[in-house]
Amino acid sequence: MNLFRTSITIITLIFTTLLVFIACSDKAKEPVPEPEKFIIKAADLSFLPEIEQAGIIFYNKDNQPEDMLSTLQKAGLNTVRIRLWKNPLNEHSSFSEVKLFAEKVRAKGLKVWLTVHYSDTWADPGNQLVPDAWKDLGYYILKDSVYHYTAEIVSKIKPDYIQIGNEINNGFMWPQGSSAYQTNFRELLKAGSKAVRDQDPNCKIILHYAGIENSSAFFSNLQDIDFDIIGLSYYPLWHGKSLSLLESTMNSLGRQFSKQVMIAETSYPFTLGWNDWTNNIMGLEEQLLEGYPASPSGQKAYLNEIKRISTADEHSIGFAYWGGEWIAFKGPQATNGSSYENQAFYDFNLKVLPVIEVFGD
């Protein structure tokens, strides 16, 4: 009888094990879900430390005082873009200011995106001045300096995203890094990229091109560079008024280069008025897109379409708004104030505008 019971027990164990094996095998065949794509919903807030230093008080949608980072984070912003200059004339956009600001951003649970200009001042397609401290360096020493400077940035500020240069259509650190000297240009980019990889393999590298025209040719010349994301600036004033062309270009770039693509800079006015005596970048009806008036609702509708365009394709991963913080904080008489106060996130009474609702899901 005991032998019979033992045999039954063994058969039961074998049968149970077989069932478990079959169940596990079936489970193994189930498709593993892809990790959810992280959508970058960013704003460049580089002026914010200077604005807060001036004691400016912002107001949320309920007209209650609230710091800008809190208001934007609650609205759904998940990443803050910050420009970094090598040795600026004052502390603004300096290494020390950017490091402190990045820590403040991270404390809010937001990701940090650095746009490294490799200059002491503004860098864009028409201006790429080598830092004064590097202007007399030979090419190989310049390349070494780029590596060590970039490595220091990544190790001490710890960004989640980093741009090697800003709007580098024509190269950077002229004349040695000009696109007229393609080999130099690429090798300097490689030095910056290698420094990032050596310090933090998880930090995503962005190469940034202003506009959409000739973008395919530009990135075709950089296929030997180790980077992760194609970043494009898109402003209707400078880059054409076809949002469909913007979308098709982004989708084409993603497929052609098997890279993630995003809109690294964009903006739009909520009014054609002004709030200081500094000329604004946009102030004329003919500068606007058809169907998108210079109004709070028009500004929101524009950014909503930018969000759709920059997230619809499998390669498209988001957008960043530029100048949302740049209110006329130096006073109504300032001739060196903001050329962007009519494209900011806040009206002229410093109450937040509906445009920030686009950062929500």
Shape: globular
The chain-level structural class is alpha/beta
Quantity of strands, as a count: 8
Rounded mean pLDDT score: 92
N- to C-terminal distance? 68 Å
Task: Sketch the major β-sheet.
Answer: 8 strands, parallel, barrel
| Count of alpha/pi helices | 10
β-strand percent reads 5-15%
Query: Percent range for helical residues?
Result: 25-40%
- Low-pLDDT runs of 5+ residues are 1-29
Strand order of the largest sheet: 1-2-3-4-5-6-7-8
**Cα radius of gyration in angstroms:** 25 Å
* Secondary-structure element pattern, one letter each: HEHHEHEHEHEHEHHEHE
Describe this structure in words.
This protein is an alpha/beta fold and 361 residues long. It is 36% helix and 13% strand. It has ten helices and eight strands. It has an eight-stranded parallel beta barrel with strand order 1-2-3-4-5-6-7-8, surrounded by four helices. Helix 5 (139-157) packs parallel to helix 6 (182-199). The chain is globular, with a radius of gyration of 25 Å.
